[in-house]
Amino acid sequence: QVKLVESGGGVVQPGRSLRLSCVASGFSFSSYGMHWVRQAPGKGLEWVATIWFDGSNKDYADSVKGRFSISRDNSKNTLYLEMDSLRGDDTAVYYCANDMEPGYFDYWGQGTLVTVSS
Amino acid sequence: EIVLTQSPATLSLSPGERATLSCRASQSGNSYLAWYQQRPGQAPRLLISDVSNRATGIPARFSGSGSGTDFTLTISSLEPEDFAVYYCQQRSTWPPGYTFGQGTKLEIK
What we know:
heterodimer; A: 118 residues; mainly beta; six-stranded mixed β-sheet; four-stranded antiparallel β-sheet; 10 strands; 0% helix; 47% strand; B: 109 residues; seven-stranded mixed β-sheet; globular
């Protein structure tokens, strides 16, 4: 079955960097787009970034453009999110999700919590 | 940029009752519309895509409908496990991106 496992979250000071990972299994990772979606404590869902199946195209929410970078290693079935210049409003649970049906978030990981605080 | 407005913010019903959740888009002409369920402490789960297509393993009591700017998720007879938060979502091709509604909390009356 499809499984997505995020890691890399933790407590980080404002202005610092963090890299999240998402290891995929149970489907042909290299055939599908992938996404990051976040959820601030007690709030709703916010799309963060998307990468095409081959990494050739990437899109970002305005709130993270220029600070976050999405990438993938299809040989390792792994998705990444490099987060720079972190701010307090980046505090959230970060989920990875796949794009088996284009335009939607079909399967989700369990999420990893990022807390930006001094 | 697409804005999705969900109503009501909170819906209080009893098991066995019918639930009707609404999602209104700020722009029409977009055929992408999905619904997700999020139970407390869990990741969201895709319920409905393309307005009315149930995802794999989703019970038949969940149905989606609508067109243009107005969309509806209906749960025909509520089960205890259906009490959760529901989000609608659309994809925008330009500017490229994805938008979620603010959510409707379905709570036990």
